[in-house]
Specification:
2 helices
C-alpha cells in the first residue's frame, strides 16, 4: 500500500512539474499587446517601454497616457503621465518630492535615438507647489475651496496631496509662455518648457504644470474639472 501511495505521489509531482513548465512556456510565448499597427509595409513599429517594465531599478507604473517629447544632446526625452483608474491602495505607495505628493506619477524617460534603447527612467516630480483656495496663495499644502467634496464618487480624496488619475497631457516647448508688452522690449513670462496635465476625477479635478526644473505647480485659474482633452 505504501509503495502504491509513493508511486501516486511521484506521478502527481511529475504531472504538476510538467504542467507548471508548460504554463510558464505558454505565458512566455504570448507576445506583448499591440497598441498601434503600421498601415504601410514600409514602416515598422517597435515598443520601447510599457507598463510593468523595469529600466534599471525603476518600475514603470500604471497605464502610460499623456506624453510630451523633446530632444537634446542626451537623447530623446519623454515625459509621460500614468493613469491609475480609482486604485487608491495601489497608488498610495508612490511618493514624490520627499513625500510632498503621492498617487499618479509623471515619468521622465531618456531614450538613445540611435539604438532606440531606454537609457533611464525616473520620477519627473522634484518639488510641488500646492494652492490654498482660502488664502489664495501657493504653498506646501493644498487647501480645498469652500464647499468642496472631501472625496470623489469613487472615494478618492480630493484637494489633497494625492494626485488622482492623471490622463491627458501636453508639452509646450521653450519660450511658449513668454511675451513682450507694447511698451517694453523686456521678455516676460516663463522661458522654460512646461508640461501640462490634470486629474480626470470628476467635477473637482485640478490642473497642473510641471516646469523644466521638475517643480509641479497647481493652476487654480484654469478651474476645476475632469481633465481629458
Amino acid at each position: 500500500m505504501a509503495q502504491k501511495t509513493h508511486r501516486v505521489i511521484v506521478f502527481l509531482s511529475a504531472f504538476v512539474s510538467l504542467f507548471a513548465i508548460s504554463t510558464l512556456s505558454a505565458i512566455a510565448a504570448v507576445p506583448k499587446p499591440v497598441f498601434v499597427e503600421s498601415s504601410s509595409p514600409a514602416a515598422t513599429l517597435k515598443s520601447l517601454v510599457t507598463a510593468g517594465d523595469r529600466v534599471g531599478s525603476f518600475l514603470v507604473p500604471g497605464l502610460l497616457d499623456g506624453t510630451g517629447a523633446y530632444s537634446d544632446a542626451q537623447g530623446l526625452h519623454l515625459l509621460s503621465v500614468s493613469e491609475f483608474p480609482y486604485a487608491v491602495a495601489s497608488t498610495a505607495k508612490f511618493n514624490y518630492a520627499g513625500g510632498q505628493a503621492q498617487g499618479s506619477p509623471i515619468t521622465h524617460f531618456v531614450i538613445d535615438q540611435k539604438s532606440r534603447v531606454v537609457k533611464s527612467a525616473s520620477s519627473a516630480i522634484k518639488d510641488v507647489l500646492w494652492y490654498n483656495y482660502l488664502t489664495k496663495k501657493h504653498g506646501e499644502k493644498p487647501v480645498a475651496p469652500e464647499g468642496a467634496a472631501p472625496v470623489d464618487l469613487t472615494g478618492v480624496p480630493q484637494h489633497s496631496k494625492f494626485l488622482d488619475r492623471f490622463c491627458s497631457a501636453t508639452l509646450r516647448q521653450t519660450g511658449a509662455f513668454t511675451f513682450r508688452t507694447s511698451t517694453s522690449a523686456a521678455v516676460l513670462g516663463y522661458s522654460g518648457r512646461v508640461f501640462l496635465t490634470g486629474e480626470e476625477t470628476g467635477d473637482e479635478g485640478r490642473a497642473f504644470a510641471l516646469n523644466s526644473t521638475g517643480q509641479l505647480v497647481q493652476l487654480p485659474k484654469l478651474g476645476l474639472g475632469s481633465w481629458e482633452n
